[in-house]
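Treating backbone geometry as a discrete language has practical consequences that deserve illustration. Part of our work consisted of pairing the sequence of a single chain with a tokenised description of its backbone. We regard such an encoding as a compact summary of how the chain folds. The amino acid sequence and the backbone structure tokens for this protein are reproduced below.
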Amino acid sequence: MRIIVAPDSFKGSLSAVSAADAIERGILEVFPDARVFKIPMADGGEGTLETLVKGTGGVLRDVTVTGPLGEPAAASYGILDNNTAVIEMALASGLTLVPPDRRNPMITTTYGTGELIKAALDAGCRKIVIGIGGSATNDGGMGMAQALGVSFKDAGGKELGFGGGELARLALIDTSRLDPRIRDCEITAACDVTNPLCGETGASFVYGPQKGATPEMVRILDSNLRHYAQALKEQLGIDIAQIPGSGAAGGLGAGLMAFCGARLKSGIDTLLDAVGFDNLLPDADLVITGEGRIDGQSVYGKVPVGVARRAKKYGVPVIAIGGAIGSDAGPVYDCGVDALLGITHEPMPLEEAMERAEELLCRAAAGAMRILAVGMETGRPGRRPE
């Protein structure tokens, strides 16, 4: 029996790698001869780098970059065996790098993300996958572009500083010194939000508050991004203000499209393609996926449904295991999931379930296999009821 195990992380409890290991142990407990292919997954946010590097046998490269507050920060990027670089922008420009009392998207920058791109270019990579979830920034990707050589100046010819607050002074965008290697690159931004750059559903209004923006800051930041978008349109002929996803990561989606020619793509689809997931499906007998919670929102770009949709194309059955199963999870059955299982079988506090997640997930996987074994046994010739 060939089983693909492709879970997301169980946030706060297990990484995707640990979740895959736990599921494998449960499988082998019942089917010790099963061939298990572990492909830990992510959706473009936290865990993207670890997932792709470990899932493909790639390597990590450590670098020091400029963090979101302009201070040095330790970060990493990955190189896969096909010479594709993987970047998780949150490791260079992420919200977790900023203490809660210092969060201020008026000043935070994506410069470090640009430095990671440059490091990948220096390593010879010309295909780059960037997960753009979890940002601390709202600068439209200006900092990223600055790190790659783009100049942003005010009316007096002075270079702009860091942060979305600086965009109000923008008068000139000069791309003459943009790293020429960018033109030879294929850059994909793994992104599962469809917010435009500006407006009430844009980067500032929707995500600014969680990054420390006050209501007044939100209005300023949105106005500044509108000004930035107008400058891009007038000076570079690039109109990205209303493109779905341009508001991702505080507008980094817009910056990547404008200066790097990046295309935005569903996070889970990007990762599935990068690890060659579809190549394993024709010979698979079963796929097991999962994440911390599976509910009605799972159909919107979450790992279990992304995995199930791929498996459905090949007629491979899918079991999804969740730390919790929402009462509104029914729609996932229409997306290729054949069975849903929760990891708890008795009432327990959330804290206990999270602490015991590895044990409970292994037990749930073993339980699924025992049910499968019963089905296989009852389906044997001579065992089916008349």
